[in-house]
Each structure stands twice: as C-alpha cells, then as structure tokens.
Design a protein that fits this description.
Layout lengths: L1 H33 L6 E3 L7 E6 L4 H5 L6 E5 L2 E2 L3 H8 L7 E8 L2 E8 L9
Length: 125
C-alpha cells in the first residue's frame, strides 16, 4: 500500500514538473520573439519574389548603415536570400545589437554593408 502511495505522489510530482516546464518554455519563446532584431526595411510585392527594398522605417538601422531604396538583398551573413521569405527566416534568429553582414545588389554590382540591428519601435495604441 505504501509503495502505491509513493508511486502516486511521484507521478503527481513528475506531472507538475512537466507542466511547469511547458509553461517556462512557452514564456521563453514569447520573450525571445519580442527581442528579435530590427532592420527597418519595407518591400513591395509581398513575401514572394526578390527582397528589393522599397522604403525604410523612421530611424531605420538599415538606412543608417547605407542601404538604399532599390537595393536587392542577396545575402545575410552567409545565407543566400532569394526571396523575402528567406530574409524573414534569417531575421528570426537575430536580436537587437547583432551586427549582420548584408550583401545587396546595386547598379548590377554587389556591395557588402554591416548593419547593427535595432529594436522594433513600439506601435502607438
């Protein structure tokens, strides 16, 4: 009888730890999402097609680093960027303050620019 009670308590403890672990993991994921690096660039044509810059956010880290409207991002660090989705995927692994090597195509030439990522501005409610 005693062994059944100990086993029941152990299982309850394990279940509690598992639940706490899940909660902690969810919290970590949410906070990590809020800390993603910010380039501050806009694209025309949606998420598919080449990553051609069509504009910048106010005080954009990308613009401050020397990127220009019309530049096509072809590489972030060593990762080729064929479309905007590739860029979005690469940015998910960044945080504010990271320095990224961004290769752009401008006037049929490639140019490498180092961008120090910022923090996405808070939206006004």
């Amino acid at each position: 009888m005693r062994s059944l009670l100990v086993m029941a308590l152990s299982m309850a403890g394990l279940l509690t730890w598992t639940a706490l672990g899940r909660c902690d993991d969810d919290t970590k994921k949410k906070s990590a999402e809020g800390e993603r690096g910010f380039l501050g660039i806009q694209f025309s044509g949606g998420m598919e097609g080449e990553a051609k810059i069509s504009g910048f956010a106010d005080n954009s880290p990308a613009e401050k680093a020397g990127l220009k409207e019309g530049d096509v991002i072809v590489k972030i660090q060593d990762k080729p960027i064929k479309e905007v989705n590739d860029l979005m995927e690469a940015m998910q692994k960044t945080k504010p303050g990271d320095k990224l090597s961004v290769t752009v195509k401008r006037d049929d030439k490639e140019k490498i620019v180092t961008v120090t990522l910022g923090t996405k501005p808070k939206e006004d409610d």
